[in-house]
Amino acid sequence: MVPVQQRHPACIVWLSDLLYYPYIYQAGEFESNYLDFPSRRVSRVNIIATVLSVFVNNERNYASALIDDGSAPVRLKVWKEDVTLLSNLSVGNLVQVIGRPRQYNSELYLNPEIVKVLQDFHFEILRKLELLQMFGSPTIRPLVVPDTFSDTSFSEEVVSEVVSGNSRQKILDIVDRLGGNEGVPFDEVVAASSLPETEAEDIIQELLREGEIFEPSPSRLRII
User: Fold this and answer.
1) Superfamily assignment of 11-146 in CATH?
2) pTM
3) What contacts 24+ positions apart, CB below 8 Å, involve 207-212?
């Protein structure tokens, strides 16, 4: 029987701390990547923050939003059917986000599972009081990626990320469709993807590190 991957609790943290502590990739089949906080491993977070910017591409298969809790701005990123999580947001919305920290091209971002617009701004005050009591005042950190929300500077990055997101989903779909109980051979996934061999191999290794897929036996792949 394949072990069930444990669902980690969503930790309450300052956004600025997500940008400070190191992001650790896990090699184990059932272990999630995490941020290495001094007293705990953080692989899921619960954030209340304000929406600063929203972007949805023309194909509506990629969306991002910049949020800030007063300590640092961090981006949310979603692909394909998850675009609906962000597409109805507006600048100024107060949102509660539950999701997983991810890192791509040295940028720390959040891949949300839940995004809820809060109508009562008292939630923001209560959350900040809670964070102050738990961790003290945050270290204010500036945006660590270029301001990619302008039409002229965003396009190149979006094309790169959408291609990457679609390629990742293609690999996941192949492993899901062909994996069965024993997994699908590594080389078969690469061939079926129609991607350049090195690109497909890099994506597979990234998915293995992130715990999205695993190897039930050497060189065979299965969905978690």
Assistant:
1) Nucleic acid-binding proteins (2.40.50.140)
2) 0.63
3) 207/168, 207/171, 207/172, 208/27, 209/25, 209/26, 209/27, 209/33, 210/25, 210/32, 210/33, 210/102, 211/5, 211/26, 211/28, 211/29, 211/30, 211/31, 211/32, 211/33, 212/172
Q: How far apart are CA 154 and CA 150, in angstroms?
A: 6
- Indicate whether 196 pLDDT > 60: yes
pLDDT band at 122 (very low <50, low <70, confident <90, very high): very high
Structural domain boundaries in the chain = 11-146, 155-223
CATH number of 155-223: 1.10.10
| β-bridge mates for residue 115, sequence order | 97
Q: Predicted confidence band at 180 (pLDDT cuts at 50, 70, 90)?
A: confident
Compute the distance between CA of residue 141 and CA of residue 20 in angstroms, rounded to an integer: 9
User: Token digits for 109?
Assistant: 């971002």
